[in-house]
Write a structure and sequence with these properties.
It contains 45 helices and 11 strands. The strands form 4 sheets. The protein has a 5-stranded parallel sheet, with helices on both faces. It has a two-stranded antiparallel sheet with strand order 1-2. A two-stranded antiparallel ribbon has the order 8-9. A hairpin with a 2-residue loop joins strand 1 (8-9) and strand 2 (12-13). The two termini are 46 Å apart.
Length: 817
Amino acid sequence: MLQEKNNVTDNHYYSDHLQNKLRLLNSKNGTIIEAPSGYGKTTAVRHYLEDAAADGDDIHWFIAMDEAPAALYRRLCSEIESIDKYAGERLLKIDFPNAFTIGETCDAIISIKCQRNTWFIIDNFHFFSAILPPAFLTALLEHGENDLHVIIIAQPLDSNFISAITGHGILHIKAQDFNWSADDIRLYFKLNGVELTAVEVQEVKRLTEGWVIAVYLQLCSYQETGAFSDGAVLKLMEELIWNKITNKQQNFLMMLSPFESCTINQMCSILGCDTLPNYAADSLSMPFVQYVAKEQAYKPHTALLEFLITKRHEYGIEFENECFRKAGDFYKQEDMIADALYNFAKIKDYERILSLNLSNVIYMEIGDSSFSEIALDIAQNCPIEVAHEYPLSMLCVAWALRLSEEYDSFERLLSELDSSLSKTGLLRAEWLLLSVYQHFPLLDKMLPIVKGAAKMFDGNYSNVILPEAPWAFYEYRQMTAFHARLGAADHEADMLEEFINIYSKLTNGHGNGADALFRAELAYLRFDTSHAEILAHKAAFLAENKHQKIVQAGAAKLLAEIALLKADTDSWQRAVNAIEHAASGSEQNTPMLRTTLDVVYSSLLTQLRDYSRVTDWLKNSDFMHVQLPESVRVNAVSIHTTYLMGQNEPARLIGLLQTMPLDKLTVYAEFLYYFLLAIGFSLLGDRKQALVHLELSAEKSLPDGLIYYFVRFSKLLKGLSEELIEDKYPQFLAQYKECEEQYTSGWRILHNAIVTNELPSDLTGREHEIALLAAEGLRNNEIAAKLFVSENTVRAHLRTIYQKLDIDRRAKLAQKL
């Protein structure tokens, strides 16, 4: 590309300024190129590589698309795997990064090794900017492999991403670098046989502001009419390109507009033919259509795609619906259910939607909406005769409504299905299983129903409720979910065990371990620590076996709290690592799961008064302004109120709690509500109101022997806990005093160790050994081989090392050591 004569190759013109910038690509490990669509970013890089890349160079071109975040990320990891198998496998194993794993993710990226000079281009990176933290981009651009050149191509990025790379020596090519000066415009026209006067050059500059695609279209206009057009780019495209092709070609291109790229087979499928007709093949040679050899697909330029979508809409609703229908039919034929659903949902083709196997898409984001939004539309607008044709799909719709807390629509749809389904058979069994959730969390009503469903399933698994569903609607504390009757906690534990034993088998593992976790929490709240620890480990093993992430997170949190009572810093760190583990390696690794894990981790931090590391959205009460599942919102309020205690803001704490509705709270949640209010009034100095609310909380908890919170917050209650227990619940007094001493001692040791680093800020011998080897540049597998330990052990030690040294990646080890 970088030829001196006329600054052009293959009729592409590049300004001297841009060429000078592009020449630096070969000397940089990381480059970011950001500009709006139509600036020629991708074309410039492709032409540069055609000229600059040596014959033996590896070129990996990854094109990001608007797809589900987890799928997009895994595609990127697979591409990295083709560069460095070890790094790619490691990234896939870590899975979608979150607050816990971002350090390890960056570590894996920085560790990428190449066998030869390699170019890794990530096109359309802006699709990542909304889902990944800036640290990810920094790691990509600051990798330590001299033979690897990472080039990020994106539309304008968020300022957070740009500030993350500022001052890091990264080559940054911006929109203004692509814009043409008046001199560039004159040379470009001259190259194409048109001599412009100085006045005409200034006119083109005024009309286009130096935007490449607009200058090209003005050239077309001048060659066609001898004059410039004052129309916008889309108008120019219509005059100079669109109106020059046949109606058949126009229809063909609009039919392709639901796709970001198309293969020949795809086009034939859309047209219903075996061989692509000549008129269609000819239309692919028009400007702004690019052939991507690696994918064997044609990709329209973003500006052309926007134009086609506009024209498609102008052709009327019937034609636009046909475009989406054909796209959906193609995806259905290819078993790409989520993509098929997206296109059918655009046109509300309920029959086609319900003809899909919806079981596995219930938990997915479909385009820019969730399946639950589509489900609600179906429940409200799908013709009854169509719904009756697809009862299994309608059962999936009902489950999606319950998951999204659309209670009235869920009840209404279940009632409609009840009247239309046979009273026997698997469909009735599915209906009966769903009807369990009409009574959630009342176990005495849920248990008889699940027993009846089990008889009808006759050894089969549900095709509606799958293990991937968030257990208890993201409630990680089983006592909060299921302790609904005062004084009945032990009976509820028995019922939940019986329920899970049946229900989990019907759903292939949904809720596995929840019963053990309920018993563990109950034992812990009674300060039966040794029993609680055994049961928590049991819950963790059972949950992990069936990938029950919510139960895993709850068990890990409880083990961390038990570690505090035992003053065991190593066990606390292992429990935190287990919370991190719950966020990886599963289809359940959704934004809402990661939100839930933020809450779990932050609850442990606030317990130790380590407020600096609490997630910002919990500190700033951002959860009040976003749509969250009720359990997540209630737990977020609980964390925020604990944070307000630490900030000594009792008035805000009380005000926030008093806005919460009490009608849906279980007995346990009610107890916590009154307890937190008691602390707020105590901090405010209103001892009378504090005692009133403390008595209310005691009435909801002490009949079941739940004394933990009275011990944990005794200092903030300024003696009220002990007074109340001594006066009204003397049977707990001796235990209270013993446990208070144990809690205070354990808390102080953990606080010093984790927060102030007064204890194990120094690494253990093994940790120091691993840290030194990692600082020398050895990979995890190399360290494992050298020390005769497993790679998982190395990974776990590194997490602890990062925690102790307060760093987030391997590259900082040498400096710290």
